[in-house]
Amino acid sequence: MTTTTKPAAPVTAAPARRLGAGALALRQGRLEITQFLRSRESVVFTMGFPIIMILIFAAIFSDEIAPGVSYTQYFITGMIATGLMTVSFQNLGIWIPIERDRGVLKRYRGTPMPKWVWFAGKVIMVVVIGIAETALLLAVSVALFDLDLPQTAAKWLTFGWVAVLGVTACTLCGIAISSLARTARSGSAVVTPVALVLQFISGVFFVFTSLPTWMQQVAAIFPLKWMCQGLRSVFLPDSFGAQEPGGSFELGRVALVLGAWCVLGLILCLTTFRWTTRRDG
Amino acid sequence: MDQQLAISVRGLRKTYGDNVAVAGVDLDVHRGEVFALLGPNGAGKTTTVEILEGYRHRDAGEVRVLGVDPAKPDADWRSKVGIVLQGTGEFDELTVGEVVRHFSGFYPDADDPAKVVERVGLGAKAKARTHTLSGGQKRRLDVALGIIGRPELLFLDEPTTGFDPEARREFWELIRDLSAAGTTIVLTTHYLDEAEALADRVGVIAAGRVVEVAPPNRLGNRQEALATVSWRTPDGLAESAETATPTALVAELAARFGGEVPGLAVTRPTLEDVYLRMIGHS
Q1: Are A191 and A89 in contact (CB under 8 A)?
Q2: By the CB < 8 Å criterion, does A18 face chain B?
Q3: Contact, A34 vs B94, CB < 8 A?
Q4: DSSP code, position B95
Q5: What is the pLDDT of residue A277?
Q6: What is the ipTM of this complex?
Q7: How far apart (Å, rounded) are the C-alpha atoms in residues A193 and A197?
Q8: Could you tell me if B176 lies within 8 Å of chain A, comparing CB atoms?
Q9: Under a CB-based contact definition with an 8 Å cutoff, are residues B156 and B186 in contact?
Q10: pTM for this model (two decimals)
Q11: Which of A11, A265, A278, B241 is deepest in the core (most CB within 10 A)?
């Protein structure tokens, strides 16, 4: 074997074996999903929490809140929305600071991986886990609490766009809020209270219209209230729309507010995202 | 730009608020060279290296790494530069093999992941979750991720911190292998023996400046340095003299004492002595 002497010029080999953008994103998504599923806290917290809450609340409250609408049915729509928020907003808002603190993000930045691939991996993970978690929740609700699945294509379509817009907004906000945490541990301290307060004021645990008006107005600024409202239009009878604060399910406004949060979240992500911790300068 | 230079730095400055971390560094690293940046903690080693790696922005100065300004890194440049950071970026839930294989996918001409895992001495740990590794083993994983893309230039920031002596020797062998294969290597260290064992040239950095650049055995004019002859007087007092002609002095002492000289020792400054003098702790 000949010893390689100092090469006079950089070897510019054709990047023949470099993976394509799609393949890179899928690999990244698969890695994120593997990491998620192997982390017991994540699985229990994200997948188990909504189901445990439904079991508890259904056991406590069994009355009807409107003709033909049991509290359980109302609560399940809230828990589907909460589950979508947990898998996107909380999951990312808690885990990204940990990865940033561990230096995982810094390490990715030192490779030729395009930046967007890392975000794509997170999005793929959120979508796959979100679908799995929602399907599990629906299966348990249908099996144990006689939840009626949507009967028309239009309702499934509404379910689809509310979920997509809601998850998009929450994903972007989760990535954005991850930059507020200074250390690995503080991610959870930043995100959990926000999520919990939103759940209380957005009509997840309590019927929204029974909340004080000022609380309803505060909740109406944030996405969760609109995700819950959109999902109620899918799972509750049309007649329930009359009981909403606006006198209907206001799907146009649902789309508008969630869309606005997507834009705001994207702007926050683009302007505040950090690959390294503050002490890294 | 001189094609023989892997790295060229002129007048590099970086301040954090009032704290001047790098105060005008000039540096050239030749292609194929092993270059050690030696200096105490807080001297500006890591800041300098992280600017060269494209992680930090500089306040002033001209910097070229493989002919490219690292403040504007592109994927092509990134694929030629291997980085072993000071802090480990851990993937607790994944195995050694999974992490190395995943990172191999980012590079156009990556090495075989299994071979690299073997090469850094983690063959037996390929299927182990990374959180079960010891500190030294995690460091080897860092090195595996640094070399998986077959870099032309490899940065190693304090690579052997936490290694036991045997692991350090093995690591040094790995660095010599990489160097023999033509990889340019820049390492920071505060172990003098490491710099002496590995580096073609050593740059001593103190208080944000490069104090001297020289081959380890010539640092601080070590070869021409005066020898110190020390002995004890008949009253038992320690006596010593610096001289360019120690043999003559010893002969003179032998004559004066009429035979054995009590407590006789002839020493020359070690790399450590030279280094400590340079960084201002004599």
Answers
A1: yes
A2: yes
A3: yes
A4: B
A5: 80
A6: 0.83
A7: 6
A8: no
A9: yes
A10: 0.85
A11: A265
